[in-house]
Amino acid sequence: MSRRVALEASHAVTEATRMADVDVISAYPITPQTHIPERLAEMVADGELSAAYIPVESEHSAMSACLGAAAIGARTFTATAGQGLELMHEVVYIASSMRYPVVMAVCNRALSAPLSVWGDHSDAMAVRDTGWIQIFCQNSQEAFDLTLWAFRVGEDPKVLFPVMVHLDGFTLSHVTEPVILPEQSEVNRFLPKFQYPFALNPDKPMTHGAFGPPEIYSETKLAQEVAFRNSKEVILRGWKEFGDIFGRYYHPVEEYKTENAKTLLLTMGSFSETAKIVIDKKRDKGEAVGLISLRLWRPFPFEELRQAVENAEILIVFDRCISSGGPGGPVFSEVRSALYDEKERPKIVSFIGGLGGRDMPQKDFEYVIDHGREIAEKRSEELFETVGVRGEVTGIRG
Amino acid sequence: MEEKFIKFGKNLVTTDEFVAPGHSFCIGCGEALALRLACKALGKNIIIASVTGCIEISTSPLPYTSWKVPWIHTLFENAAAVISGAEAGLKILMKKGKMPERDIKCVAIAGDGGTSDIGLQALSGAFERNHNFLYLCFDNEAYMNTGIQRSSATPYGASTTTAPAGKFSIGQITWKKDMGKIAVAHNIPYVATACPSYPFDLMNKVKKGGEVKGPAYVHIFSPCPTGWRCATDLTIEIGRLAVETGIFPLYEVENGLYKLNVDRPKLKPVEEYLKPQGRFRHLPDGEIEKIQEHVNEEYAKLKAKVAALPA
To answer: Cβ B72–A71 below 8 Å, yes or no?
Structure first.
């Protein structure tokens, strides 16, 4: 029997990691990720989990040790946030390029300077192109479900890519919510044992990480890209299998009250839950608005996004990151680019807010929708609008 | 003589090769020789994590490889961290019964830059966490792979491309970072220095380092004719001179106790070592004297340690 318990999202991640019977955990503490490695270290110390916990001296080494562990065929997990993800940046690319299915939870945090331990999506956007499968969680249940799913998908012999599970720092990582925990037998049914086909072994010597001269580098990277995009099939199948066993179904683009919606708001992560309340209120007032939440960030769900917005007239994209000097929020840029070739596409508006732990209360999402509609109706001179920021500048011109 | 070696040599050292020919090391490379000997000493039940550098670039151009043992290269500064993960992973998989119990030695290899500069933090961390691994530093005293740029292991007075000798500079103005001392300071069970000019000493130390339970560090002095600006047939001789002048003493520290492996009652003058090398050609007599004084001082300190804490 599954049980319903109160769990902080960080501990939902660690419960999933424990039930996945992870072999190696290598992590370095950084706010707001600390509850994850602390709890895992505790599980190992108490014998609740049989794993090697490597208390490394930096995030760079955290991911490097994950590479070594994955290379010999161990199921491997780490977690980080903000600056930690930046410090391990070059190693993040190696995990995907060398096809090590490491699972990493990222408690999304702003990037310095000024120093901020609080949440936004700047860290996630900085690793956008690293070749990891990336998903965003909205609540603690999803933090559990998607962590478990991450092992299943990443380790699939047709995939062998690392998976990043994003959960908003503090606003999700530190929030306690009811979570339904499954039986171990159900988890075992969903998640087979990890059999890495290229494990380093003296009986069958292999070379991992040879260098790519110009004659072969391009072909290598293209082959990686083809394999990465092909992972989509397993991603979807993984969610179908997950739903069939656990009763909760996930999708690359989650739609909320989108039927007949003329205006759609697009969010990612835990702020989607606040946005849903605002959508409810507006629907009650008779406004034709809906919400779409990007769950799968990489590989980007082009098809699902196009379908989700095909009947909308206005699409308002809410970013928690600035693409400095760029065309708007990074999610906005991608969404606009994904829809550019469509014969009929909604007018797309970029809003940026919720930076460095700035809250986005309901009234701010109301403003985003109301003001977004106004902007869409006239041709705006602003590249993007800001919300919840003091001062005279409310938008940035190109 | 050659006949005798063919007859008896194979009784002393395995004829198996673990780094296949066809690699692209420079002519006269001391590092290639040291690597070959080290691998013979370790045998095939190993996993090697390599940093970026001469060894990596000379042995692994995709789609080829020289490696006949499991080998992983990822980045420049993280071999100690990668091997930490492999070592911890093997241990836990064996404990959980996911892999049959067996002895697989985890070995990290790096150059002087990947060890004493950019990789020092990862190495210190792996020492401190007491992983069961052997770290081999192949020291050719500069960033040779990228074109002879100075590192913290470059010796005083050497001319390199980023610390060149010029009208107002003698080249490197700092003394070589002493990795042996740094390793000893971590209180690990085994630290040694070696040089391919003393092949049996090198192999003994690598073998011992591989058998130790816990972290072991062997610092291998690897003459580099390309970067040191010397004749390619002088590799062995220069390595020997480095030892005989006291510039690079061969010692080992086992559980904190010291042993000098090659001890000469009287050191040769450093000039004999410096002279055949183009990187020191510009040094005036005064600087050579300064180096001589420094070597005398350091050698005396080492001898004092050997006397105070003998193995």
So the answer is: yes
